[in-house]
Design a protein that fits this description.
679 residues, alpha/beta, 5-stranded mixed sheet, 3-stranded antiparallel sheet, 21 helices
Length: 679
């Protein structure tokens, strides 16, 4: 009998926390599982049920560890082994089944992501895999995976490994206490440790949620405060004495609040900061209410206690969700969505019951740590082996000798062919399509002036006689986000054929615009766009290529944002105001280019003539050389892109002439304050 079950409602002195059977714990688990399933299957939102699981796990784990520490020294390794052995076999069965089903059902383009996440889930690192993807711009387009729901189980196991260490340190600090004082000192030490974890984790969670919410959602350290809150309830919950009426009210308030949490709060976008106090606070109210014994109580009747067994039957929900994704509201008739949701839950319940009866129960009856460890290692190795076998088989399906544009893969040219073209495998393969983009970071890249981003230029061909780079006929700048960067793949063949040079100025999730189109009012994106415009003005390229529309996706209306148009107009206005010879960035001109002569020729597209009047991509440019000698070197005043050197910089220029006409472009070797030369 716990304190709240006594007629007087007074706590038992010295009672171990959470030592008695607590039906409200089972009810909370059942409610959390049902909410997760309903919100995922029918609503398409996150419910906050995972946060309830974290709090309940902290409640139970803290009570177990404190009672064990009161009995004697904590065997941390044995507790680790038991926790891992309890979770791994059932998880391994689910992951192997998921791998086989995914290989048969999923399109090839999703195989790579699925393999990575299955291996991460087998090692209980799925939350860190998803956290890494959340900050990887190239992985932000990843869709929901068949193993994504293992992130919460990964967090739980990591805490199961951390909590015994925490209590071992507390027990070590209390080792000198007298036997009679040891329980009280252990409780005080555990309270102090949990309060420190709660405060530090909550502050970090709030801060990271504000700065990088996707990363914070999967980060273990941002979730520790929820476990700590459950632990504090286990230690001191019985000290809060409520009347029967208040306990009934607290229980129902907690239940109603949990049910409404996912509908009221955008959990997937707001958690786990301050907003996560809603579901954890509601769960705390249910725990404080306890077993009321009242007919109207939220956890007092036997049918509700029997519903707690659902948590075992809904454990492998990820398999069912992978097989049939929910139909969001607004798509398809309502009765169809209801039937499909019922099918998903029935399949999940059947698979979970089968896993519980055939895997968990038999293994739970096994005795001996050595046997459990062997089973754990074997299960983990099996999952990794199956996933790697799938990955190797997928890699063997890629044909490295296939060539785009050959007779078997004519592409769009097939529309102009008279004869019918036999169907062929897609090129590039869906397995390799994620690598089918131009790696501009392997080009000649330098930092953009006044902003820590790269400007990358296509390497120029080298003249066989002079071993000098051949000046291009045209310079084309591609500016914008990663979507604009993808245009370089189509421009490069044209550029190579016509002796053009492609220069890419790109920043992920920041299209070239006067507004922040992806994240509203993002200061960094606005500053980058301004710096990119200045960079383009200084280069004076022959053409600028960027995106013209946005939202060309299913369910979206393609449009040309006003910020795009304004950015084009400003760039055009700056180019028209640039004088042919602007040696400084005066208030009358926005140009930052050095003095350069007007071109003597204006070759057209495809011309093989060389123009000697284009500046090099980076750094200062040099005045035209007096062609009276084959070569000469002299320090000459020049304009630099650095604000610190704008007034006093000089450059060391070298002019060369060759037998070709016109001569090669002058090259500025260095530029530094006061004429001193940089290495």
């Amino acid at each position: 009998m716990t304190a709240r079950e006594q007629p007087g409602g007074r706590p038992l002195v010295g009672a171990s926390p959470a030592a008695a059977y607590r039906p409200e714990l089972q009810g909370l688990r059942a409610l959390a599982v049902v909410l997760v399933a309903i919100y995922h299957v029918w609503v398409g939102r996150v419910s906050g049920g995972v946060d309830v699981f974290f709090l309940v796990s902290g409640f139970l784990l803290t009570g177990q560890l404190l009672r064990a520490a009161e009995r004697g020294p904590l065997d941390v390794r044995a507790r680790w082994a038991r926790s891992i052995a309890r979770l791994v076999p059932a998880a391994a069965v689910v992951l192997v089944a998921t791998t086989i089903a995914a290989a048969l059902v999923l399109p090839e383009g999703r195989w790579g992501q699925t393999v990575r996440e299955i291996i991460a889930s087998a090692l209980f690192l799925e939350n860190w895999q998803l956290a890494a993807d959340s900050v990887d711009y190239a992985a932000r387009g990843n869709v929901e995976s068949v193993a994504q729901h293992f992130w919460s189980l990964s967090v739980q196991l990591q805490v199961f490994l951390l909590w015994p260490l925490l209590f071992a340190v507390v027990a070590l600090a209390c080792r000198t206490a007298a036997p009679g004082d040891r329980p009280a000192r252990l409780r005080r030490g555990a309270t102090t440790a949990l309060l420190a974890v709660f405060a530090a984790s909550l502050v970090y969670s709030v801060d990271l949620t504000i700065t990088n919410q996707p990363l914070a959602y999967f980060h273990t350290l941002t979730r520790l405060w929820e476990f700590a809150l459950g632990g504090l309830l286990a230690l001191h919950g019985d000290r809060i004495v409520l009347t029967l009426r208040r306990r009934v009210a607290a229980g129902w308030t907690g239940v109603v609040g949990l049910v409404a949490c996912g509908a009221v709060i955008p959990v997937a976008q707001a958690f786990p900061g301050i907003a996560a106090l809603w579901p954890t606070g509601c769960a705390a109210l249910v725990l404080l209410a306890g077993r009321t014994g009242a007919t109207a109580g939220a956890t007092g009747s036997s049918p509700r206690r029997r519903c707690a067994t659902w948590r075992h039957q809904l454990r492998p929900v990820p398999v069912a969700l992978a097989a049939a994704r929910p139909v969001p509201a607004g798509h398809g008739p309502g009765d169809s969505r209801v039937r499909r949701g019922r099918l998903i839950l029935c399949v999940a319940t059947g698979l979970a019951a089968l896993t519980h009866e055939c895997v968990e129960k038999p293994l739970a009856r096994r005795r001996g740590a050595r046997g459990r460890n062997r089973i754990t290692v074997a299960c983990t190795a099996t999952v990794i082996a199956v996933a790697l076998t799938w990955q190797v088989a997928a890699a063997m399906r890629v044909d490295p000798e296939a060539v785009l544009g050959d007779d078997e893969h004519p592409g769009a040219h097939a529309l102009l062919m008279d004869e019918d073209v036999e169907p062929a495998e897609l090129l590039p393969s869906a397995l390799a399509v994620t690598e089918d983009w131009v790696r501009i970071e392997r080009w000649d890249c330098t930092l953009m002036a006044e902003f820590p981003m790269d400007v990358c230029a296509q390497p120029l061909p080298v003249d066989e006689d002079t071993q000098e780079p051949v000046a291009p006929d045209r310079r084309i700048v591609v500016v914008g986000d990663s979507h604009a960067q993808q245009l370089t793949g189509a421009l490069l063949p044209i550029a190579q054929e016509n002796n053009w040079q492609i220069i890419v100025i790109a920043r992920g999730a920041c299209p070239f615009s006067t507004a922040s189109e992806v994240v509203p009012d993002e200061a960094d994106c606005l500053a980058w766009n301004a710096a990119a415009a200045d960079e383009i003005t200084a280069m004076r390229p022959d053409a600028v290529v960027t995106l013209a529309t946005r939202d060309a996706r299913v369910g979206q209306t393609e449009q040309t944002p006003a910020g795009f148009v304004e950015a084009w107009r400003r760039l055009d206005a700056q180019a028209s105001r640039c004088s042919p010879c602007a040696t400084t960035r005066a208030s009358t001109t926005p140009c930052r280019t050095a003095c350069r002569p007007a071109p003597t020729t204006s070759p057209g597209v495809g011309s093989t003539a060389r123009r000697s009047t284009r500046p090099t991509l980076r750094g200062p440019t040099c005045p035209t050389s007096p062609r009276t000698s084959p070569s000469s070197t002299s320090p000459t005043p020049c304009a630099t892109r650095s604000a610190a050197h704008r007034s006093s910089a000089t450059c060391s220029c070298t002019w060369t002439t060759t037998t070709s006409r016109p001569p090669t472009a002058p090259r500025c070797r260095a530029c530094s304050p006061g004429g001193s030369r940089k290495p």
